[in-house]
Amino acid sequence: MVRPNDEVEALLQEYADLIAITGGEAFKARAYEKAARAIGGYPADVSHLDAAGLKEIPGVGTSIAEKVVEYLRTGHVTVVDERRARIPAGVRQLITIPTLGPKKAMALYENLHISSVNELADAITAEKLRDLRGFGEKTEENILHGIALMRQSRGRILLSTAMEAAEDVVAELSRIPGCEHCAYAGSLRRMKETVGDIDVLVAARRSAPFMDALTELPSTAEVIVHGGKKTSVRTAEGVQVDLRVVRPDAWGAGMQYFTGSKAHNIRTRTIAVHLGLKLSEYGLFDADGGERVASRSEDEVYARLGLPWIPPTLREDRGEIEAGLRGELPRVVTERDIRGDLHTHTDLTDGLTPLEEMVAAAAGRGYAYYAVTDHAPNLYMQRMTDEKILAQRERVRSLDGRHHGMRLLHGTELNIGPGGEVDWPDAFLQGFDLCVAAVHSHFNVGRRAMTRRLVRACENPRVNVIGHPTTRLLGKRPGVDADLDEVFAACARTGTALEINAQPDRLDLGDEDILRAKDHGARFAVDTDAHSIPQLAYLRYGVGTAQRGWLTPDDVINTWPLRRLRRFLRKDRTD
DNA sequence: TTTCAATCGAAAATTAAACCTGCGTTTAA
């Protein structure tokens, strides 16, 4: 479901960008940015609020509340439209390129009339940029690098974006009479970190009502194809949705086929051939007589192939077929197995929500324990002090166990400095129940230095979790260059967990690295790094990624009972 | 533009690295 809050957040962020590009009103831009974030992270639905209710949200005053009301009522905000008319959308696109901010984007537009990423790439090739004041060779290089990364991920969208759009479509289509099943399939069901397009499958006798309904959904911006077998549309956010309607008795075969992956399906089809069968999206058939032997459910199809049902997150032909044939498929970790979140923030640093509210929301999710891990002083922008974190500890202790017995852990997110050092001296760190440590800057220290840096952090007896280990940002920044095998081995050796950060633009570690780390015997923590209440629900993306890495509950420390977790957090120390 | 404290107006999130240019601007965490 695309939350109205997210829509408003996007609108205010766009306005903030436009103000920043036009220049001269830095505080105004910052105010809109802050309000955008606050609304995105606000737990209640803003579309149910009036101006007075909106002003309750911190960072939202008279002026912004008015604009939000205008947007919710009319779908437009006059002043935003005015700015849009002055600055082409392509110029705003430019500032999504890393190292290219609002000032440079405006300079490019004013001096060279560049208003799209493609035009920018051409201008660099034509060596037009270097004559511009403030631009040089290195800037050109950085911009080109940013554009290349962008193009690599072009057309692919974040898992969370796809999931929200897909759940919307599935909910709408499920309501139509005659719908026996409706679900999304494809790489989305396999929980890949990015998704090309969304495949939705319906089981029904007649296809037309569903095909028509898809083209008429409010979220549909453009109809690409519209037929009886397949309909494709594009949503306002540019996501392509493909819909197929299958006969109810072919539901299982359809889901199996459209879930993929291609490599997995090649294997299942080969197995079918060896058994004298033929597998297609319509069912599993006898190769000779042509009669259908299985198709109603995935379970039935897999069973007839001599396989157990295989979780979609494993269907990548990475050994799941062999494991299934041997009866040794892993019992992958699920959201229900997670007993607590070990990396979260509050408004003491860059979170949006006060401690008490985050804790109450966590308890509402049924957690047995929950860690609060605000930033430490070395991330200067957060202005953390010893006094502040100790005062927070008192508040955490007083809330401990107050929500149906949920236990609270007081932690912190340390910054791993260029040489692997962290914020506080050992004596001070001793006071925390757990420490997450992560790299936040100095990404280009070189492979050897980066490896040493991460290994040193693991060797710190107070560091329990390496947060977002590669620090990648999907489509924006590659992971750091380090010998990850060495880091994973150090994690296993020292009893330091690797985080699977569930923020949709991170999903860090990613599936392939998880598989390698597991081989080294490392443990993992699936955490949300939540900065607001809605972000606590990102957990599902972290769990999906963990499944893609074949992790079982035993591999994931925050599925463990608190006693076992505490033992792990001691890292064999005796104090 | 918001917030806070005062009733109109001032202050607001810091630091460092990178880059371009020759000391200052831009970006990003």
UniProtKB/TrEMBL annotation:
Species = Streptomyces toyocaensis
The UniProt record lists the keyword Cell inner membrane: no
List, alphabetically, the SMART domains matched.
Answer: HhH1, POLIIIAc, POLXc
**This enzyme's EC code(s):** 2.7.7.7, 4.2.99.18
Under Gene Ontology molecular function, one entry of this record is: zinc ion binding
What are the residue boundaries of the Helix-hairpin-helix DNA-binding motif class domain, all occurrences included? 52-71, 92-111, 127-146
Protein name (record)? DNA polymerase beta
Give the subcellular location. Cytoplasm
BP GO annotations: DNA repair
Q: List residues of the DNA-directed DNA polymerase X domain.
A: 3-316
Q: Where is the Polymerase/histidinol phosphatase N-terminal domain?
A: 340-418
The main location is cytoplasm
Organism ancestry: Bacteria, Bacillati, Actinomycetota, Actinomycetes, Kitasatosporales
